[in-house]
Structures
1.
Amino acid sequence: MRTEILKLLCRNAHYTPAEIGAMLGKSETEIKAEIERLEKEGIIRGYKAVVDWDKLDDAYVSAIVQLNVIPKAELGFEDVAERVMSFHEVESVYLMSGSYDLNVVVKGKTLQDIAKFVARELATIDSVTSTVTNFVMRRYKELDTGLCDPEDDCRGNFLL
Amino acid sequence: MIDYSRMLNSAVQEIKPSGIRKFFDIASSMDDVISLGVGEPDFQTPWQIRKAGITSLERGRTKYSANKGIDVLCNEISDYLHRKYALKYNPTNEILVTVGGSEAIDAAIRALVAPGDEVIIPQPSYVCYEPITLLAGGVPVIIETKAENDFKITPEELKAVITDKTKLLILPYPCNPTGAILEKADLTAISEVLKNTNIAVISDEIYSELTYGDAKHISPASIDGMWERTITVNGFSKAFSMTGWRLGYACGPRELMAQIIKIHQYAIMCAPTTSQYAAIEALRNCDDAVENMHNEYDRRRRLIVKGFNDLGLTCREPKGAFYAFPSIKSTGLSSDEFCEKLLKEKRVAVVPGTAFGKGGEGFIRASYCYSPEHIIKALERIKEFLNEL
């Protein structure tokens, strides 16, 4: 049941426990309790709206910054990852296989802001050996959600 | 001056136009209408099926296929029906690929029904059986199924209407609009009634993949005494979300299929070739996709049924298809009045139960082939509507 609850919340975090309960054939109380447990256990870490900022005047820009890191003895990449994570400009941090080590999504008001941040705060970290900054030009889909306007429902045959 | 009423076939003219066409024409002219009216999956046809169709076009498979359908497809249908419903049909002469389940029903009725023949039709049910029977010169004999029987046709009801003119029984299960299904015991009892008669059965099983809970679809033709008299109709529209592809099939004893295929040959030639190639892929590799869609419908089913019951509109649990059939008797309004008022005042479109037969009076049909968000919004507006009554 946990997985089903999580899948539904990932689809729409706004579903109420009553609605989730109705869909899964469980009571509202059961669902509420399970969600609380999931939050307490740190499995659900947060609920975020998916926003198409480009539709607003104060849109922001984001960049995918690829860091190469010399891992520390015993700590591996943990140290650097924690340090990078702590910045509010950093939206996400992933440890990667392949040609670079850390994938960091950075957001800022302008491209220059991001460039300054990377130069001042990321590139200067001790174990970071190189940074490659790729700016996001346009977002099409985020968190399983298309950012384009939905097509109209073209079904019209009411008798079937 | 041409008198068109004399030019036209009188049987056609006597068929009443759909009462709700006008209603939905109004609905489509209004803004911000939340509809629960369509009876068509909201899912895209699974990508691999579309790709198979596209590939067949790229390869130029655009000619007529064999009348009865592509051999490979007939084989796959035979395997599928055996695997799922324990049915045995020879792909060479007992399976016909048609333009949707609709053509299968039309051709089968025309092959069986002569002028004056009686055709037993349980209602509320899908709207095509009565008009097609009339066009064939047949006499529809309606059984008004009852809510307390979960809208299942009972052997007693069946016995009461059989005469020496009875040619055909239509079994539309899982049922649109009631969501009713027939279980093994129900079918065995019906088979008993039909024993020693020459009455044929058309089983419209288009919703066979959509049964919920412990209920598993039982094909009437798999019951003792039924295979020899039954035309099994099914298709790809609902299970595989292939409504626009227009593909279905009819299966039955070769003696019956040989005659049905004549009608098909002259009227249709063959079902769309592209759709047939896509359907082969559907039957071979899409069990997972079908299951995912099924599970999604199941969640929505629970959501909408609970929603109506919480509003005081008693809704028995539908075991099949994708429709809820709640009773609106508690409002004191007729089905038509309820639907018109609901549309006008709250811009929610549902189908009056009377569209499916007289026995639908006091009920409405709400489809759950919509996202949960859409269903939740519709239920909110219906709640407001009921509060303001």
2.
Amino acid sequence: MEGSNWIADHLTLNKDGEGILFRCRLILSELITNAIKHSLVDNIIMEITVDPLFVEISRYDRGKRFFLVLENQSEYYPLNDAYAGQQIMVFKDKMYNLVAVVKNPFLIDFKLQEYMEEKHDIKDTLEHFGLIILTKSSSRFSYRFDPDTFTNIFSARIETT
Amino acid sequence: MITTNLLKSSMVVRINIKEAGLKVAEQFKKALFDLLDEGNPYLVIDFEEVTYIDSSFLGSLVSGLKYALSKGADIALVNLHKDIFGLFELIRMDKVFKIYSNMEDALNKK
């Protein structure tokens, strides 16, 4: 994948270099797949930032927003101040809870809570893995809505030290 | 996209594309369901040609496995490339699927 080749060329990789590039490939792939499936746009912009301490991969689009659902209602941006710091369930199954931590009215961080059992009953496993892959591959995975430009920004950061 | 071959009473499903992603996920899911509806009790899915899968294709695999188990059938995976096995490990699908490194073991269910 061209994006991960570019990262490899620009990053001084430590002993976990292979692992970092693997995660970058997953993130690039899933951000684009997520856009095709959910954003309903013709154009997206991918931005890759390489820093001595981290790699950050972001996707910008002006398509469908990522909504949180509370008490069966979609919450719009800006999110109510009352939600600041709260963890809001995005989805759950027997293996994972994916929650959104409200950082400010326009920014959420995704966090994964895992149930560590040796064997899992597939019956209760959801079939949507995109956000799980993105969250697990990142040191931090976030969504921000820019109200000035109506832009959705998903950002995945991998710490490299 | 796939070819099938009956071996030792197992249906080997060989994926013949390198990139198994969003575009083919639904088609693949339908193919699995059709094979299970035909009464095949054990599908061995051969990933030897596949160098890339995404979350959509994973979803189709999980859906296929759920359907198989509901019919008293089973699905195993074989010949996963390093990155693909890494993805399964990352999201712990290696605890859900039976994964084999070679066809012989997959067919003998070792």
